[in-house]
Specification:
The complex is a heterodimer of chains A (383) and B (262). With 383 residues, chain A is α+β, with helices and mostly antiparallel strands. In chain A, 33% of the residues lie in helices and 24% in strands. Chain A has 2 domains: 3-236, no CATH class; 246-370, no CATH class. In chain A, helix 9 (258-265) crosses helix 11 (321-340). A 5-stranded parallel beta sheet of chain B has the order 2-1-3-4-5. The N and C termini of chain B lie far apart (68 Å). The chains are: A alpha+beta (383), B alpha/beta (262). At the A-B interface, strand 5, helix 10 and strand 13 of A face helix 2, helix 6, helix 7, helix 8 and helix 10 of B. Bound molecules: iron/sulfur cluster (SF4) (4 copies).
Chain lengths: 383, 262
């Protein structure tokens, strides 16, 4: 088959060469690392920085690291952080101003972000980056901070060969096989007496790095094995979110009793939005020093779960937790489609795992779908 | 004096029932202190200077809770003397750790502790300043965060709204890139129900949040208590968790009383 022409095999013992090739090209390589009981993203310089032999166990409101019985490098699913950490950082200084006499000067000397390579981008994460691309630079309104950080990112994607119980990429059409814009894609194959990667290039930059590694072509059998491994991940996925007519479903059920039910559980703590790889909302804070000669403007992650987020003259529009959860879920799954043409959810499951009380977006949709009602009926319906 | 020369705003610091930790935050702000001294006339601050300039004052910082009849009268006078009155710290904003006595018989304590109980003249409850006089701003924390204090003073001088968020500790915890210890380690953390301000200090060191900054803007203590039960906490432990420095803040009070009843 023709597509096989592009597939090569990289032995795990040669994996460092891939890191070296990227570092040599001036990339700061960011990838998975074990820290504080989870797999997070951090600077990766050598093979030993990677979460060798670690995996995660995830369920609603619960995450635990576990040892694997092999030396897999990518044998985990997704952790609490996403690439948003680098592309759309939690806190950015927008400007600094100094007063001198009766005038002031704007100082803008933020260093340019380094050239970066992302190692270990999953299918759902690749989709999430595409969602944020659309929001933050896919329009006449372009966020220059995002654009500067996004440009020239080298993406090493990894196909999932296992899924967490919280994953539902298959429902959202985003995974577990990577699609779209990557430079290199890996499928890890690990078993008794073997540990190798099927690797393919998705761009010229990727092909150049690949050529330098001089890998041998992957055999037909190995390619099939890699495909089967990804299939296995897909078949492990039990969580479903039925997206049929989801936009209208949520729009017509804005007064469903389920929103009261979820509000009883929801802490309005904002964890779901912080971990979501597509949530992009921010607040702007102006700070000045006590002498009034130095001022800074900062942009920080905010959330539709915070009261001030919907503050307009006179007060907060969404004062109840009910209205805030409804806003979040309806935006993510319905009004995002009107705004940007696609769903705001890629099915990564982070909001499910990292919600301190285990609220599950797929369950909330199911509950509404099971007893959809017009607003009048719903206020008399069963709880 | 020409009317062009503007007098520096006068600040006064008052103490009620408290440990002094909050007012010391001001002294602890070494880097900013010179700026504060240049911008403000520190008119009354017994803890830090001999200056005892009489009121009125432009800004009054009040530390401590109201626990005696004398306090209750003095806070009225303090209010009259201050244009802007700011309550600082868990004692002044929620009654402090000493509000634990609000659930006990104070007379019994007095009998047990003091050799001559008749010298002790105290109120039954330890209460926040706002229960006695109108307060312009409440700066939370046990102790307060010095950066928030400087920000509050700066904003007050500049006539702008201070950046003192009222959302949960979780927001700052996540912005810092912390791994949530509630989810990843099963630690009972009060962060989701607590107002931020500390920069998620305890969760950054693998300890659950103790609730130093009191209830966040819309705390769901019932749901969090249920989650604590799932994490293996019993009712006595849940009562203790909410009954800390901000025990008398009504949402925490309600939560601790509910778990005490169950
Ligand atoms: S949601 Fe899909 S792509 Fe994302 S980690 Fe899970 S299996 Fe992989
Ligand atoms: S809403 Fe939840 S599952 Fe969907 S992309 Fe965000 S964090 Fe992932
Ligand atoms: S859904 Fe969960 S994570 Fe999101 S605000 Fe509510 S309690 Fe917090
Ligand atoms: S560790 Fe505590 S404060 Fe931090 S996100 Fe988790 S629950 Fe919130």
């Amino acid at each position: 088959m023709t597509e096989r022409v592009n597939q090569y095999v990289l032995e795990s013992r040669d994996f460092q060469q891939l890191l070296d090739a990227l570092i040599k090209r001036g990339y700061q390589v960011l990838g998975p690392a074990v820290r504080d009981g989870a797999i997070v993203y951090d600077v990766v310089e050598s093979l030993s920085d990677l979460p060798i032999g670690w995996t995660d166990e995830q369920e609603t409101g619960r995450y635990r690291l576990r040892r694997r019985n092999d030396e897999a490098l990518f044998g985990y699913v997704v952790g609490p952080q996403s690439w948003k950490k680098y592309l759309h950082p939690a806190e950015v200084r927008l400007l600094t101003a100094e007063r001198s006499g009766r005038t002031f000067r704007i100082l803008n000397n933020e260093p340019a972000p380094p050239r970066r390579a992302f190692l270990g981008v999953r299918a759902c994460e690749l989709a999430a980056i595409a969602v944020q691309d659309r929001v933050l630079e896919g329009d006449r309104y372009r966020d220059p901070i995002y654009a500067a950080r996004r440009e020239g990112i080298f993406i090493v994607a990894v196909n999932c060969t296992q899924a967490a119980p919280t994953c539902f990429c298959t429902s959202m059409g985003t995974g577990p096989r990577v699609r779209g814009a990557y430079d290199l894609a890996l499928t890890e194959l690990v078993g008794p007496g073997k540990h190798e990667f099927v690797i393919e290039a998705g761009s010229d930059a990727g092909a150049e790095v690949l050529a330098e590694l001089a890998p041998s072509a992957a055999s037909e059998a190995l390619c099939r094995e890699a495909e089967a491994a990804v299939e296995r991940a897909a078949s492990q996925i039990q969580r479903r979110l039925d997206t049929t007519g989801i936009r209208d479903l949520l729009y017509t059920n804005f007064d469903h009793l389920r929103w009261d039910n979820v509000a009883q559980r929801c802490l309005a703590c904002a964890n779901c939005t912080m971990v979501c790889p597509t949530c992009f909302c921010t607040t702007v804070e102006d700070v000045s020093d006590v002498t009034g000669t130095h001022a800074e403007r900062w942009r920080k992650w905010d959330s539709c779960f915070s009261q001030n987020f919907s503050y307009i003259h006179g007060g907060s529009v969404r004062s109840s937790a009910k209205s805030r959860y409804r806003q979040w879920m309806t935006h993510k799954l319905a009004s995002w489609i009107d705004q940007f043409g696609n769903s705001g959810c890629v099915g990564c499951g982070r909001c499910i795992t990292w919600c301190p009380v285990g609220i599950d977006i797929t369950e909330e949709v199911r509950a509404i779908r099971e007893s959809p009602a017009s607003s009048k009926e719903s206020s008399h319906g069963k709880p | 004096m020409s009317s062009k020369v503007r007098r520096k705003p006068r600040i006064a610091v008052f103490k009620f029932a408290s440990c002094d930790g909050c007012q010391l935050s001001l002294l602890d702000a070494e880097d900013e202190l010179l700026g504060v001294a240049a911008a403000l006339d520190i008119a009354y601050f017994p803890e830090a200077s001999r200056a005892m300039v009489k009121g009125p004052y432009d800004i009054g910082l009040v530390e401590g809770s109201i626990t005696t009849h004398h306090d209750a009268e003095r806070i009225q006078e303090v209010r009259r003397q201050c244009k802007t009155l700011i309550a600082i710290g868990a004692c002044a904003t929620a009654g402090g750790i000493q509000a634990l006595r609000n659930w006990k018989d104070v007379d019994e304590f007095i009998r047990i502790v003091y050799a001559t109980p008749k010298y002790i003249n105290t109120l039954k409850l330890s209460t926040p300043v706002a229960e006695h006089v109108p307060v312009d701003f409440e700066l939370r924390g046990c102790p307060i965060n010095k950066h928030q204090l400087i920000e509050l003073i700066t904003a007050t001088l500049a006539g702008r709204k201070p950046n003192v968020p009222t959302y949960s500790v979780c927001v700052e915890c996540k912005r810092k890139g912390n791994v949530c210890i509630a989810v990843a380690q099963g630690v009972a953390c009060l962060g989701p129900a607590t107002q931020t301000g500390c920069g998620a200090l305890c969760p950054s060191f693998d300890r659950g949040c103790y609730g130093c900054y009191g209830p966040m803007e819309s705390p769901n203590t019932e749901s969090l208590s249920n989650q604590f039960r799932i994490l293996g906490q019993n009712n006595a432990e849940i009562t203790r968790a909410f009954r800390g420095f901000n025990a008398w803040a009504w949402q925490f009070r309600k939560a601790s009383e509910e778990s005490e009843r169950t």
